[in-house]
Request: fold
Amino acid sequence: MKAVIVGYGSIGKRHCRNLSKLKNIQCLVVTNRKRVKLPSKNFQKFNSLDECLKLNPDVGFITNESNKHVKTAIKLANAGCHIFVEKPLSHNSLEVEKLLKLVNKKNLITLIGCNFRFHPCLIKIKKLISLKKIGRIIFVQAENGSFLPDWHTCEDYKKSYAARKELGGSVVLTSIHEIDYLFWLFGSVKEVYSITGKFSGLDMNADDLSSTILRFKNDMIGEIHLDHFQRSFSRGCKIVGTNGTITWDSRTNVIKIFNNKTKKWKNVMKLKKFDLNSTYVNEITHFLECVKKNKKTTNNLKEGMIVQNIALAILKSSRKKKMVKLT
Reply:
């Protein structure tokens, strides 16, 4: 199988390292960077995507800036490539429908790169919910707070796409994982209200804080807190039901359940020596297996569009200073 990777920033490098460990894959890397150290001899560097497409790649990994995702995907789809799009799908809705029609017409396999769907703790939580371990779910709180300059210490955060609005940066889009996994766990959202904007002293023009309330179609309530300035990294969720509560702390990878009858907490999962990179390996493996078997992925373009619409509704709600309904 021949794969083209478009973009060689931090996530592009990660995917390339993971692809280098898989068998029978030739990788073509598109980047304008002059000095590039590729992970193996089975990788070739190209300055343009058009040059790569002449070699007829089977799959394409889109890992460039968010504002270039859809245009790159359309070019790959026209060439008949199956498409892996790193999150977020895009920074707006322009040409997304065009991409979907093209993907459907050519019967292409797609996956939006939200690796948290492959996190063992969230997979466990999804199972606990389906087994109704805490009864009917009433509300969920999800948080992801971190310090953007600490993400990639060898790079200047001010130049990253996450910090620059013109490149598609925004805490809502960059940290879209929380929106994605809540949709994955609880289904569609019917309305949102949000305060989102630039609040910290970081040298960036993209939004760095978002506080959002969601009402799901099943009338469950969700709360999402996202920020890019919290030095004490915090990520996880709390799910409250009629019979108890589930909590997950991503720092310790511990899942606990509180039983309303016994009034006691119980650990139901604790991961030891967990390597987050395994979630990236698993999502790539899943994508390539689906391509080989011509099978729908767990998070295809259509689902990615639903999640993107929730994110865009959050941004619209903040701009309009009112509740926004989703169709």
About this structure: The mean pLDDT is 96. DSSP finds nine helices and 15 strands in the chain. The first helix runs from residue 10 to 20.
